[in-house]
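agent> Task received from the user: take the single chain below, predict its 3D structure, and emit structure tokens. No templates, no multimer pairing.
agent> Plan: (1) validate residues, (2) run structure prediction, (3) serialize to tokens, (4) report one or two observations.
agent> Step 1 OK, no nonstandard residues flagged.
tool_call: predict_structure(input=
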Amino acid sequence: MIERRNKREIYFQEQDYTTEKYVVPYIQKHFAVDSNTRVLEIGCGEGGNLKYFIDKGCEVLGLDLNKRQLENAKEFTQKFCKDTSKTSFLNLNVYNAKPEELGKFDLVMMRDVIEHIPDQEKFISFLLNFVKEDGVVFFGFPPWYMPFGGHQQGCNSFLRAVPYFHILPSFLYKFLLKLFGESENKIAGLLQTKVTGISIDGFKRIVRKSQWNVLNETLYLINPNYDIKFKLKPRKQLPIIRSIPFFRNFVTTCAYYIITPKK
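)
tool_result: status=success, residues=263
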């Protein structure tokens, strides 16, 4: 249990590092964050993405379905943040959230979350209930077709190091996972991600059909998070690759977007 908590604490610190060094500067090109900013993170996990905003004095709310991760978030933010008096965490499905109770936010954070949410078209439209007219939403996600877009790196067998095999048909994907001893819970989670995984083209199509404008799009050959995890310098995708629909999904490890409600 102590070892597991230590791993989650390291993950908290990795999230904080990437958010402060890469995500916040990306957001601030379009939205100035200060102590008056109301921040909502959907799928906040341990809360590492929120540390910068808490220390900035923002009013912060984190939502997550995982009670254990929320307990960690409360513990870690108390331990590592300057002042958590304006911070709260709720174990809540966002679809059950009442906009009139939560109010609207200046900034909504969704980092490595959208690829786990069913019915993304409905969800992205639903987000309008929580964003101020001049507010923004940050999305960061791995395109489904990238080498580890199925999150198979979380496997317990050697399959965690096998790229692209998550693209196989579901029956064959499940067969291989069972063959190499992955647990039923792990297999169920990976198959769910196979259903909800999102591509660059799919995300852009959904946003185009909704009441949102894209303020910025950046595709990365090397994910900014690989800086802290693997000591690899982030690298943006080559323009020629960015311009090729579908293929770009296979060689892009991360996509960043800023969207805002249409006026």
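agent> Step 4: summary for the user.
The chain has two domains: 2-145+197-261, 152-196.
agent> Done.
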